[in-house]
């Protein structure tokens, strides 16, 4: 197995798995990380299906950063570059075709807009999510892992502006909903390939999802992947240890 998972969550033959790999920035196009992480993700999915005799083939998602923003930290910084109107994804399609696999596309702009609507509802009625609180101009998440997690901010007009951890949480919410649409599964797992630079935001987002939205028997595995060496480090979190308590 190319990626060694540090993982204790039980995988049964009816476990549903989604693997997010092939991430790239729309402004620069498909790069080495996208190509190599997609190959690694497809190989991992094939290995897991064979090793655990999975009834269902893992699902694959490619996330495209089309925000024109740098979101390696909690706060997204605008760039001067603009994403092209059309993105050439033929190399990614060829890799999937060679593995008889298919993938869905998820755009970060969609996730940001979804997160903004969540904050709009919360600012009208904070009882809709008691894990969030307002602190000056920041909307904070009550984390057990980090001393401070900024879920969003309130601009001068009173609108909520989502930050990276909340966007990650919403991505996980959509992913697990996609998996839960398949009935009769014992558990659901999302495996997410990331750059090492994104470690804090994706761990914060994982905790935010599992503490706020988890439907039980769910796990998130964050894989930090080097496209040049293929070295990887994985960190796993589940609904058991992040349901308001970190193991």
Describe the structure concisely for a colleague.
The chain is an alpha/beta fold and 247 residues long.
Explained architecture:
With 247 residues, this protein is of the alpha/beta class. It has a domain at 16-109 and 168-238: Rossmann fold (3-Layer(aba) Sandwich), CATH 3.40.50. It has five helices and 13 strands. It has helices at 32-52, 90-98, 108-124, 164-180, 199-212, and strands at 16-20, 24-25, 59-65, 69-70, 77-78, 104-107, 132-135, 138-141, 149-154, 160-162, 188-194, 218-225, 232-238. The strands form three sheets. Strands 1, 2, 3, 6, 11, 12 and 13 form a seven-stranded mixed β-sheet that branches. A four-stranded antiparallel β-sheet has the order 7-8-9-10. α5 (199-212) links the parallel β11 and β12 (218-225). The radius of gyration is 18 Å and the shape is globular. The two termini are 27 Å apart. The relative contact order is 0.18. Residues 77-81 have low confidence and may be disordered.
Number of strands: 13
Mean pLDDT: 87
Biggest β-sheet, characterized?
A: 7 strands, mixed
Helical segment count: 5
Give the uncertain stretches in residue-range form: 77-81
Name the shape in a single word. globular
Report the CATH C-level class of the domain at 16-109 and 168-238: Alpha Beta
Report the end-to-end length measured between terminal Cα atoms: 27 Å
Instruction: State the share of residues found in helices, binned by percent.
Output: 25-40%
SSE run: EEHEEEHEHEEEEHEHEE
Strand content: 15-25%
- CATH architectural category of the domain at 16-109 and 168-238: 3-Layer(aba) Sandwich
The CATH topology of the domain at 16-109 and 168-238: Rossmann fold
Computed CA radius of gyration, to the nearest angstrom: 18 Å
What class, by secondary structure content?
Answer: alpha/beta
